[in-house]
TrEMBL record:
Designated name of the protein: Uncharacterized protein
Lineage of producing organism: Bacteria, Bacillati, Bacillota, Bacilli, Bacillales
Length: 129
């Protein structure tokens, strides 16, 4: 267990979910893996390609980002439809609490409470996954 995540971390991850996903995919596609002279001069064999893929998958930042993505996916699936709508509006479309309350005909304090409870659930998931 490396790092303990806070509510601020969870909010940051939700706001940057798509960016983290793109970073992971981009890393797998484009990360530079230095090869030895034999690999450069000759065509790569299947095993050398496998070794490069394994090197990429062992990258700590990549692994942590993948773990965060899995946690957020699990978190989003566990939400009730109402809470999912609120979290999606708040973090994915960046709406303000007031606008969310108006859109879904709720009290602002209810929106804040549901957001806070949901984000606390994500923090628990991130720290125990």
């Amino acid at each position: 267990m490396g790092r303990v995540y806070t509510v601020d971390d969870a909010k940051f991850f939700l706001e940057n979910y798509k960016n983290i996903q793109m970073e992971c995919n981009d890393f797998l596609l484009n990360a530079y893996q230095p090869g030895d002279k034999n690999e450069v001069s000759a065509q790569k064999t299947g095993r050398e390609n496998e070794r490069n893929i394994i090197k990429k998958l062992d990258n700590k930042v990549y692994q942590e980002n993948k773990r965060i993505i899995k946690c957020i996916d699990k978190f989003l699936k566990s939400l009730s439809p109402e809470n999912y709508r609120i979290i999606y509006a708040k973090y994915f479309t960046r709406m303000k609490n007031y606008d969310i309350a108006n859109k879904y005909h709720m009290d602002i304090s209810t929106v804040k409470r549901k957001v806070r409870k949901s984000v606390e659930g994500l923090v628990k998931l991130l720290n125990n996954f």
